[in-house]
Design a protein that fits this description.
375 residues; alpha/beta; Maf protein; Rossmann fold; 2 domains; eight-stranded mixed sheet; six-stranded mixed sheet; 22% strand; elongated
Length: 375
């Protein structure tokens, strides 16, 4: 290891951020370099090298359309970020990933290229390198890609040090960054109604086909299985939405909102909105179903969310109905120990079609999960 690489890695290890690193096809030298310099335990939470297709698919949770592609590398980084949040929930974390194909012991018909992503709650950085085929040995391509990974990590950590990259005139390196913090500030300041982040990190501005809204503090299997059940029932994808401005809770800070949204990185799309009530959500996302639990449906029917005025409640329900929205209601175990479903709701006959039952039961409480994590 040369002195320049050692200085950079020393600076990385002195940075408070911790990482989960995932690399496939190339980039293992970056991992070796991180481990070779004292202090690696301060930086590296976990390293995963999903080299076989089975391992790769298992880590992602699905088989990608292409193993070596920018969106695949981003999803790897998102899953790495989610994993880092589990391993170090109180730390500042990021997911670093590389998916690459380089020179091997048989001729390859395709190009040699690498896709690197560093995903942290506030932003996403991608680096895409297309190499001049046949111009380097495997060791030289591996070294270049590993250096690029270390540079990407340094940039994500806002460190000034960089390694010199041995690029050739015909090589093509593209670097891009998406600033999620900007969009989060716009929503929490109520300057933008909503935005979304796709599983592969893209900003979404088109309304979803169906929404499961919540605080997701934390995201758990109940939310995931409810969305999957509703998606199968409706025949359209159900998208999660984190409410930044809530009707009966304090508004989320941009940092808290981004940390909640980071739970979905690499796996599912997540929207954030400044709409605290379902009437305001219906105005944003007209004509779509809202997937809710029984307890949420109860709150929808309470006048206290409509200036304590029953007439305002009826007017809101009529407007939601006129906008073409519906509520798909899943039953839930209540504090009384009984399982409640849509038949227990005080719904007037004129709104019977507005509330529809969803056969689903999984008794998991976010409050109980938070309590367990604190004890």
């Amino acid at each position: 290891m040369n002195d320049q690489t050692r200085r950079l890695i020393t600076a990385i290890h002195h940075n408070p951020q911790q990482i989960v690193l995932v690399t496939a096809g190339a980039g293992a030298q970056a991992l070796a370099d991180l481990l070779a310099v004292a202090g690696a335990s301060r930086t590296l939470l976990e390293a995963i090298v999903p080299y076989s297709a089975a391992s790769f698919d298992n880590f992602l949770g699905y088989t990608p359309a292409k193993y070596v592609a920018q969106d695949t590398a981003v999803c790897l980084a998102g899953c790495a970020l989610s994993r880092a949040r589990v391993l170090a929930p109180a730390a500042t974390v990021l997911g670093l990933a590389c998916s690459a194909t380089i020179t091997t012991d048989y001729p390859k018909r395709g190009e040699h290229h690498a896709h690197i992503a560093a995903w942290q709650p506030q932003n996403l950085m991608t680096q895409d390198l297309h190499l001049t085929k046949g111009a380097r040995s495997r060791e030289e391509e591996e070294r270049l890609i590993s250096n690029l990974m270390l540079n990407c990590l340094a940039q994500a950590m806002s460190l000034p040090e960089r390694l010199v990259l041995d690029l050739l005139p015909a090589d093509n390196l593209t670097i891009s960054e998406t600033d999620y913090a900007h969009y989060a500030r716009q929503v929490t300041n109520q300057k933008t109604a909503y935005f979304g982040i796709s599983a592969d990190g893209r900003i979404l501005t088109t309304p979803p086909a169906a929404v499961l809204s919540g605080a997701f503090n934390p995201l758990h299997q109940g939310h995931i299985q409810l969305a999957q059940t509703a998606s199968h029932y409706l025949g359209v994808p159900v998208t999660f939405e984190c409410t930044a401005v809530n009707a009966d809770k304090p508004a989320l800070s941009p940092e808290t909102l981004l940390n909640r949204m980071a739970q979905f990185a690499g796996r599912w799309p997540i929207f954030a909105s400044a709409a605290p009530t379902f009437l305001e959500k219906a105005r944003l996302y007209s004509g779509i179903p809202f997937v809710v639990g029984y307890d949420t449906a109860v709150r929808i029917l309470q006048p206290r969310f409509y200036q304590d005025n029953p007439d305002n409640l009826l007017a809101a329900l009529r407007e939601i109905q006129s906008l073409g929205n519906t509520f798909l209601v899943a039953g839930r175990l209540g504090a009384d120990g009984l399982f409640h479903n849509i038949s227990d709701l005080p719904v007037q006959a004129q709104f019977g079609s507005l509330f529809q039952p969803l056969p689903f039961r999984l008794d998991i409480s976010s409050t109980e999960l938070r309590t367990k994590n604190l004890t």
